[in-house]
Specification:
The chain is an alpha+beta fold. It is built from four helices and five strands; from the N terminus they run ββαββαααβ. It is globular and about 40 Å long.
């Protein structure tokens, strides 16, 4: 399951995308996030509980500002680089 955390507004598209099928729960992305925007959550996926990365509720509506210093438009943020499974990506399209 692919989850987009973020929003689209008049200034562009800003999302952190997490693929729970690829996420193995290693926590490396949460450890590398300088803003502490990522957390581990337990979700019911494919008929079982699985611990995966997610953007915390407090950061979802302000993801553009939370993640801006990591330059997500290059898709080379600490969380993306830390994920060896390729489960974390950025969609960053300012207008």
């Amino acid at each position: 399951m692919i989850t987009h955390y973020g929003y689209i507004d008049g200034s562009g598209e800003y999302f952190i995308v997490i693929d729970s099928d690829k996420c193995n729960g290693c926590r490396k992305c949460t450890e590398k996030c300088p803003q502490n925007a990522l957390e581990m959550v337990t979700e019911f996926i494919d008929l079982e509980d699985k611990t995966v990365a997610a953007v915390s509720e407090t950061h979802r509506k302000k993801i553009r500002y939370t993640c801006q210093e990591c330059e997500p438009e290059r898709n080379k943020t600490p969380c993306v680089l830390a994920c060896q499974q390729g489960a974390v990506k950025c969609v960053w399209k300012p207008l």
